[in-house]
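From the methods appendix. Each design record in this collection lists the tokenized structure first, followed by the designed amino acid sequence. Records were kept in a plain field format so they could be parsed without special tools. The example shown here is representative of the layout used throughout.

RECORD:
FOLD TOKENS (93 positions):
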């Protein structure tokens, strides 16, 4: 895996970033865990998520899946997570 600096702070991230948008709408929780584990084993330590990802509006279920996986991971100090703000929440969120 190749790594690069993110900004000027010296933080190194994998050049590949795993997007988690389809965790739950298309991948079950066990499948999502397997995808994240395999990506990490391959050297990907940069993950992208957002609170609006997931199958139900306003619940951030994808973030819950990522959080559960992260809680059981011994390498959580080696991971970098990107997120967004001011996304469309729909239905009055």
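DESIGN:
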């Amino acid at each position: 895996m190749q790594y690069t600096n993110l900004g000027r702070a010296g933080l190194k991230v994998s050049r590949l970033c795993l997007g988690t948008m389809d965790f739950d709408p298309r991948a079950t929780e066990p499948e999502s865990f397997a995808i994240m584990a395999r990506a990490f084993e391959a050297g990907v330590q940069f993950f992208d998520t957002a609170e609006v990802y997931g199958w139900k509006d306003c619940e951030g279920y994808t973030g819950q899946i990522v959080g559960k996986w992260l809680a059981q991971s011994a390498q959580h100090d080696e991971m970098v997570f990107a997120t967004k703000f001011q996304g469309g929440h729909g239905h009055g969120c």
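APPENDIX NOTE: The chain has one domain: 3-82.
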